[in-house]
Design brief:
single chain, 332 residues, 2 domains, five-stranded parallel β-sheet, binds guanosine-5'-monophosphate, binds manganese (II) ion
């Protein structure tokens, strides 16, 4: 699938060439990944950072929010800055489909004049860089970073490979999504050949969860409803308090579990943020595309996995979004 946002004359090869030029000329790169980072956000950020350092560049990796504890096995994860006030000559945005996804790390007054090179795989990418390497058919941004490493002839170290394999494994749900291609498997094979363990990375990045989050998942499933092929749940601040979970954000990938119901065509989880806004995660079964709904609501994502944040209160958010999801099912 090609992004509806890609201009008719969008030529990927030209973007790759231009990106390579910017990277070769840069001295100090500010590399930024998206807010609430997942495995591909952290993996592509660290993989890119370490690879470019191998090319002799100064690189500062940054993300508004800290990485989840589960990614602590990755070398470099503690080096990620949550703000960036140094002197840079280039910004590289990873796994981010629009400028807002860079969060508070990107300060227009400080960074507004710097060129931005985008590496991303979201179909909803708004092409906000001066150069945009956007490949919606690639399963993860980490896989794109591996392509960059091959292009530049850089050395693939085990640390880089562990970071990139984390992104490949998490975004493909361990090679189970329809975005998984022979190229994805070839990327994983190349990364494994550096000696990193696929089993170990899969267990740490994807399988293990805290007992607390298992209980949260159970309460979320109990609170869910099913109607017209839509399985959905609301996690209000009140419900979170009642469950007694330590996490005060996110859905703990409840939405990824709800879509495993055979009856579900679309799953949605509405989370009330501490500031009262509502964060929504969407998943869809094959044949249904939730990326455009998320995009219309100011977010983005992939056909089968997308998200957005909209104003509260919860009831208004639900009443606004459910009819739109029913429409997606009707029109599929
Ligand atoms: P998740 O439900 O795992 O948080 O996100 C699923 C997909 O949707 C990911 O590719 C993620 O980057 C994207 N996504 C989630 N929330 C947002 C959002 O608020 N804005 C944008 N642009 N994309 C989002
Ligand atoms: Mn990704």
């Amino acid at each position: 699938m090609v992004s509806q946002n890609l201009a008719p004359d969008y030529q990927l090869q030209r973007e790759w060439d231009a990106a390579e030029g910017y990277l070769r000329r840069a001295q100090h790169i500010l590399a930024i990944t998206h807010v609430s980072p997942d495995g591909d956000a952290i993996g592509s950020l660290l993989g890119f950072t370490l690879a470019m350092r191998g090319m002799g560049k100064l690189v500062t990796p940054a993300c508004q929010d800290s990485a989840q504890v589960r990614y602590e096995y990755l070398n470099g994860v503690h080096e990620i800055k949550q703000s960036a006030d140094g002197a840079y000559d280039l910004i590289v945005a990873l796994d981010s489909s629009d400028l807002q996804r860079l969060g508070s790390v990107f300060v227009p007054g400080l960074h507004g004049r710097l060129p931005i090179v985008v590496f991303d795989h979201h179909v909803t990418n708004t092409l906000f860089g001066v150069v945009n390497v956007v490949e919606p058919n690639v399963s993860s941004t980490s896989e794109l970073v591996l392509k960059l490493i091959r292009r530049l002839g850089l050395t693939l170290t085990p640390d880089i490979a562990a970071a990139l394999l984390t992104g490949v494994v998490t975004d493909s749900l361990a090679f189970r999504t329809s975005s998984t291609t022979p190229d994805t498997l070839a990327a994983a094979m190349e990364l494994m050949k550096t000696g990193v363990s696929l089993a170990d990375i899969t267990r740490k990045s994807l399988v293990l969860r805290t007992y607390d989050s298992l209980k949260f998942m159970a309460a979320g499933i109990m609170a869910s409803q099913m109607e017209d092929g839509i399985v959905w749940a609301c996690i209000t601040r009140k419900l979170r308090r009642e469950i007694g979970t330590r996490e005060d954000r996110g859905d703990g990938n409840l939405v990824g579990t709800l879509i495993t119901a055979t009856e579900a065509r679309i799953a949605a989880v509405f989370v009330e943020n501490p500031d009262g806004t509502i964060e929504i995660g969407f998943r869809s079964a094959p044949g249904y595309d939730v990326s455009q709904v998320a995009f219309e609501l100011g977010g983005g994502g992939h056909p089968a996995a997308a998200g957005c944040t909209i104003p509260g209160p919860m009831r208004d958010a639900v009443n606004r979004v459910l009819p739109r999801l029913r429409q997606v099912i009707r029109e599929a």
